[in-house]
What does this fold into?
Amino acid sequence: MMEFTNLVSDQNGNLTPDLLKIFLLLLAPYAPHIAEELWEKNRGAFSIHQQPWPTFDSKYIKENQITIIIQVNGKLRDTLQVQADTGKEKSEIEKLAKENEKIKKYLEGQTVKKIIFVPGKLMNFVV
It folds into this structure.
């Protein structure tokens, strides 16, 4: 809700009636009395608590970039920012990690015994 208010204040307070209604619906569980009063002042039909919950469009919540944690022997050594679809491919993440300067110094002269990969989350080199 704070992100929403920050967004509105960045736009010089230009709040459309539709956005206000959505905000009041989200506010209602936390501040039911003030939300009800504001809903009534905004000419809302019936009680705010009888309104359907706002729906969302999943295309707006997809992440384009994800962070992959790179570990050597279970210790955080660096992170990689990659495209969301790339984060699922073990071979691609392994290649990027081994090319990383911070990781190279921990793998130099070492034999990698095992690679633990959690798609979209982390890669751990056990040496």
